[in-house]
Amino acid sequence: MSIPIRHIILFASLASLLVSTGRADQSREEVALFIFGDSINDAGTNNYINTTADFRANFPPYGKTFFHNPTGRFSDGRLIADFIAEFAKLPLIPPYLQMKDGEFMAGTNFASGGAGALVDTYKGFVVDFKMQLKQLKQLRKKLRKKKGKDQANRIIREGVYLISIGSNDYLMPLVYNPALFQSISMEDYVGMVIGNITTVLKGMYKVGGRKFAMMGIGPLGCVPGMRLLTRNGSCSGAANKLAMLHNTALTSILAKLETRLHGFKYSYFDFYASGSEKIRHPSKYGFKEAENACCGSGPYKASPTCGGKRGVKEYSLCRHPEKFLFFDTYHPSERANKQSAQLMWNGSLSVIRPRNLEALFKYEHV
Fold it and tell me: Coiled coil located at which positions (predicted)?
């Protein structure tokens, strides 16, 4: 019995579609997500190190919105990295220190709350940026042992490296040692921070990383914790100046690295611009409060007492975290995190450049 030619063409087209779809899914699943930095993306690293409650969020009400239990994330729910994983069709990425030997799902989270690019930033209480690089090297070794050298190298090479680092390097001296900037210029200090970031980026490249999603620093001076330090509750000019100097220097070095290192590709998220826009026009983005934190105590709920585990038991918690830009003293709410992640994933060049993360994930190293 002969089969009509139109049926053959239809079958061939369906087969081609299934094959191409399978390849797309396979390629997408092969792109791992490696997360580095500070509390913006810490999914629980600090639960596994010897530190204090000041650097942990593994107690209520953290996690109340989505997980309904604390996970170690410094928010009421998910973080930017969690949403990026979701958009990339990946599961939640676990902390490196939580993973068992030989275990690897779709990436690893090395971020540590309080971490800085400078080793001395909260030294002894966090996993600093350079130590996170060492952990990446350890992971590569474990992957090679489990999956073989070629496959491990491909996972490292094709993965996306999401990084948020630098804020603590500026917050620590501004809060605890403001006289520092009488002995060193802001420009020179920023130069040291950027120098360390550059060293680690080159180290990641040497390990095999090629695709980097760098988050700039947001308007530090306008977080509740910094408003508390100004006379009238306005944004801290010094903190915002440091953030802008940092972001300018960071974008410059990223452009240079893409030119000088073969295969180096990056996306830069203008956290400062997007954050400032939400602070100026909160209602436009669904927020009713952009100055006060949801959880804390004192003016602006800016004292870091959320959860009552950091020396002071008394604290106040809002009923609707989704209406607040900030969940606690320094950290965004889940709603704010989701909005930032959406901008990073498929936003315009005004906030994510020279390519968004959707394009970065699809890029294949040659």
Answer: 126-153
- Taking the whole predicted model, whether its pTM rises above 0.70 is answered as yes
16 pLDDT band, cuts 50/70/90, is very low
Q: Are 47 and 95 in contact (CB under 8 A)?
A: yes
Name the residue among 290, 351, 295 with its Cα closest to residue 323: 290
**Number of domains observed in the structure of the chain:** 1
Residues serving a catalytic function are 39, 328, 331
**CATH code at 239?**
3.40.50.1110
- pLDDT interval class at 365 (50, 70, 90): low
Q: What is the 3-state secondary structure (H, E, C) of the chain?
A: CCCCHHHHHHHHHHHHHHHHHHHHHHHHHHCCEEEEECCCCCCCHHHHCCCCHHHCCCCCCCCCCCCCCCCCCCCCCCCHHHHHHHHCCCCCCCEHHHCCCCCCCCEEECCCCCCCCCCCCCCCCCCCHHHHHHHHHHHHHHHHHHHCHHHHHHHHHHCEEEEECCHHHHHHHHHHCHHHHHCCCHHHHHHHHHHHHHHHHHHHHHHCCCEEEEECCCCHHHCHHHHCCCCCCCCCHHHHHHHHHHHHHHHHHHHHHHHHCCCCEEEEECHHHHHHHHHHCHHHHCCCEEEEECEEECHHHCECCCCCCCCCCCCEECCCHHHEEECCCCCECHHHHHHHHHHHHHCCCCCEECCCHHHHHHCCCC
Cα–Cα distance measured from residue 200 to residue 163, given in angstroms and rounded to the nearest whole number: 11
Task: Report d(CA 117, CA 129) in Å as an integer.
Answer: 5
User: What pLDDT, in 10s, does the model give residues 55-101?
Assistant: 999 999 999 999 999 999 999 999 999 999 999 999 999 999 998 87
Q: Which two tokens stand for residue 75?
A: 């928010």
> How many angstroms separate the CA atoms of 75 and 326, rounded?
9
In a domain? residue 338: yes
Q: For residue 15, is it within any domain? A: no
Asked, for residue 200, whether it belongs to a domain, the answer is yes
Residue 263 falls within a domain, yes or no? yes
For 50, the token pair is 């010897």
